[in-house]
Amino acid sequence: MIIGVPKEIKNNENRVALTPAGTQELVKRGHTVYVQTTAGAGSGFQDDEYQKAGATLLPSAADVFAKADMIMKVKEPVEQEYKLIRKDQLVFTYFHFASYEPLAKAMLESGAVCLAYETVERADGSLPLLVPMSEVAGRMSIQEGAKYLEKPLKGRGILLGGVPGVKPAKVLVLGGGVVGANAAKIAAGMGADVTIVDLNLNRLRYLDDVMPKNVHTLVSNEYTIREQVKESDLIIGGVLVPGAKAPKLITRDMLKTMRPGTVLVDVAVDQGGCIETCRPTTHEDPTFIIDDVVHYCVANMPGAVPYTSTLALTNATLPYAIRLANQGWKKACQESQELRLGLNVIQGQVVYKAVADAFNLPYTEVSKYLA
């Protein structure tokens, strides 16, 4: 198979979809890899490393898209890439279709096969290609939240861990999944007073067992959240419904009850956000303020730490990429339920129900294409 790796062009997106090590693994299995020049530079991988691994460098994204049977990316295609994607071309990346209708429509029009990292799912319900970036984003959410609590950045002016004789900040984490657990771990390590809310009692029992004593758990409901936001200094939104829009747990009217300078970090922003007042921001302009509440809603948080993020992501994606390259997408998805669940759009049809439901689009059973 011919695999293409274009340079990411989303604002401050420095990750790359394939490392030189991954390139070598594909090349030694007989595949051809084309990499756009400087695609890996932001993550610390130079062109000559890709060449030594067996890749061929191409000067432009258009050249890469034109040659490849499978495109490997990190973030969803942006508008200037839409027309480069060909009919029947396999695009393997994060899509988050349910949060952005123009992207879904563009991919339907392209006739491409869109296999989304975020909906590849194991039998136990875990999301192996979302986990590494959720781990990074969860940990980063506290790092960024602590920074924006500083007064010069319009926060409350509170030190996350406090000092002897002064109480630490109160951190509320919405969701006890991968994002929430990683956020809570870092916040607790910095000495904050942390509360995790989640609907799953078994998950709360587990977190209660493994987390430090400065982490508390509560069952999630509207009443509890309304009460907690009044006293919280930093609120992390880490709620995910695979492939669908995130539920709005923080509503606009709740902002009025928060203390001025409270910081909201919505890690779910690339799935529409779990905070009603959230809108996607960039690393270049990461925050905005509504009702004296600081909103940090960067849609590609891990892009700020690209070396760590690229290695973590490609550790997870490479085995799937090798399988797709070796077998082709149809056979690979016939034999792997995990990969089959990653299929969102095939040749102009939506084959993932949550995406179809998000925009009232016709839904086609994926089995039609795998027969």
Automatic annotation (TrEMBL):
The keyword Oxidoreductase applies. It holds the Pfam family AlaDh_PNT_C. It catalyses: L-alanine + NAD(+) + H2O = pyruvate + NH4(+) + NADH + H(+). Transmembrane segments: none annotated. Residues 149-297 form the Alanine dehydrogenase/pyridine nucleotide transhydrogenase NAD(H)-binding domain. The active site is at H96, D270. It comes from the Bacteria. NAD(+) binds at residues 134, 198, 203, 220, 239-240, 267-270, 279, 298-301. InterPro entries: Ala_DH, Ala_DH/PNT_CS2, AlaDH/PNT_N, AlaDH/PNT_NAD(H)-bd, NAD(P)-bd_dom_sf. Its EC number is 1.4.1.1. SUPFAM superfamilies: Formate/glycerate dehydrogenase catalytic domain-like, NAD(P)-binding Rossmann-fold domains. GO terms for molecular function: alanine dehydrogenase activity; nucleotide binding. Residues 4-137 form the Alanine dehydrogenase/pyridine nucleotide transhydrogenase N-terminal domain. GO terms for cellular component: plasma membrane. Keywords: NAD, Nucleotide-binding, Oxidoreductase. Coiled coil: none annotated. Substrate binds at R15, K75. CDD domains: L-AlaDH. PROSITE patterns: ALADH_PNT_2. GO terms for biological process: L-alanine catabolic process. Belongs to the AlaDH/PNT family. PANTHER family: ALANINE DEHYDROGENASE. This is Alanine dehydrogenase. It comes from Dawidia soli.
